[in-house]
Design a protein that fits this description.
Layout lengths: L33 H6 L11 H4 L12 H14 L3 H11 L2 H5 L6 H20 L8 H8 L5 H20 L10 E6 L7 E4 L17 E6 L3 E2 L5 E3 L4 H16 L8 H9 L2 E5 L7 E4 L3 H4 L1 H10 L10 H5 E6 L6 E7 L9 E2 L12 E2 L1 E3 L13
Parallel strand pairs: 1-3
Antiparallel strand pairs: 2-3, 4-5, 6-7, 8-9, 8-12, 10-11
Length: 380
Amino acid sequence: MRKSISKKSKDYKSYYAFNKSLDKTKKRYPSLNIMESVIIKNQYTLNTYSDKIASKFQDVDFAKRDEATRKLIIKFYKLMKADNLFNEWFSEASESFEIKGRKTPRTNASKFDKFFIETIFNNDNKNNVNKNNIDFKKQDKEFLKVENNLNVLKKLMVECLRKVQKDTGKYLDADISKLRVAFTIRNKNVLGTHYGKSWDKGNFKDKQGNKVSHIVIRKNVLMDDNEKILYNPSSFDDTSSVALRELGHLIIPNSAKHNQAFEDCMTDFRQEIISGKGTSKCYTYHTKQFKKYFSEIYKRLSKEWNASEGMHTNITERTKTITLRCGTCGSRVSIPNQSKKHTLCNFYCDHEGTEFEGLGQTKMEQHSTKKPRTFTGDDK
């Protein structure tokens, strides 16, 4: 749950429309957004209008929030960043409760100003993506080694991460060179798990003995009680969604409870949390925008995906454990690792040690104590 923020907090600066910059007491002035205040000439912009800058912007639609509008904002910012009055406004507005504290500002002017400020910050981050000279190619080479379906998923993870880093300027601290990814057979209804470097079971180390992060992805089918397939490891969509969700746990530290930061990360990767938000188990899937945003990556890698490679589509038959119960005395016994051939065997109870001892044997029948199977995404 998103933590509420008090607008009385001393951490926030005051917000005011830019056209009121020189006289913030004129409350009867209509509030105009930052670009309107500079490129529209009327009685409310006498102190902020610039004929020189206005001549470079014609017919701007302030209701749009598309890439074209972002380009206009960046162009406008470059023309204005030498203006002291603008810099003072930008500094205060970006730290105000209206822009920083509210998810949705109250007025149309402040809504655009929030979009304006976020666009500038994201653009600055994009320009500084490699400011620290991070060797992404070396990281990627270390991460990508094996040519198979596992590597297809690893390519998807690294290429999607690089695109999000480039477009948003976020998650630059995510180091995947020490990340290990593997398929595994899961007996419970868990699709994937991320083990951080602090999770040490003795086998999460590289050849040099350094601790590494580890992601495991389910490679056996998950069905509900009616044998309807909930998760198919042969499906590129199913497995890639699990891979990106677990990558999110690597990117966002301490996200076992799938908090707001994790949810925002999934939004950046065009993933939707279907259930389990704010809990230790959640299920995500690709949004409608996923294949559009990652279009080139998805189309290319889906062609490399081999739907029949090493996936255990009927593994549930080989790992099933059954429980038998005596209808007379109530004794129970579990028979592990059942396969179809074991269904030819009959088991009998002689009631030894119970009040029914000596009454003869009773054939034991299969008994289920399990709750109906539900679909959970990962196990943290």
